[in-house]
Amino acid sequence: NAGVTQTPKFRVLKTGQSMTLLCAQDMNHEYMYWYRQDPGMGLRLIHYSVGEGTTAKGEVPDGYNVSRLKKQNFLLGLESAAPSQTSVYFCASSRDFSYEQYFGPGTRLTVT
Amino acid sequence: DQQVKQNSPSLSVQEGRISILNCDYTNSMFDYFLWYKKYPAEGPTFLISISSIKDKNEDGRFTVFLNKSAKHLSLHIVPSQPGDSAVYFCAASGDNNDMRFGAGTRLTVKP
Questions:
Q1: Residues in chain B closer than 8 A to A60 (CB atoms)
Q2: CA–CA gap between residue A91 and residue A49 (Å, rounded)
Q3: B97, B105, B106: which to substitute to probe chain A, counting the most A Cβ within 10 Å?
Q4: Which residues does A66 contact at the CB level (< 8 Å), separation at least 6?
Q5: Over the stretch B48-60, which tens digit does the pLDDT of each residue have?
């Protein structure tokens, strides 16, 4: 089992460009999440999904969109990247919201 | 507003001794608490959790204590090993699907 995988691992964008981060899990989990990690702030929840076709806002959703067209995939989109979105992005999945989450290795995004 | 706080950015202990990592929260609606460990260039991995109906949960060398009245939890690692050197995050969640993480504590275990 690969667990949770994220694509790409690194990316550099110019301000205003768009991109999509892909997360895939092979554990048949219903719940999937996108977090960002910034120095001194821990992980902050951007959006999450409680099942295929559903999405919901987390703590810091502005500037991001998500889609969950297939149960195993959760996509995070940035329509117009800003320097404030420079961060490390983690995807995670779990069988229920409060239960242990399995994290991917992260994507380091730099917006110049 | 940081609803989950880890006030110690770093902690250094000697191998074989006890490591105590602390976490405070402000939201009384939180009812489930978790600890994650993170190595550099990897995603966090789950370590141990505790429900608000308990005050202690133990798993091998790791024990989590919860003091609901003080809104405080702690992670004890006994004995500490060099491989435990990592960043530890506490997390809290409640009924409204609100998951909050602390900023993390970097633990260094010296041989």
A1: none
A2: 11
A3: B97
A4: A34, A46, A47, A49, A55, A74, A75, A76, A77
A5: 999 999 999 999 9
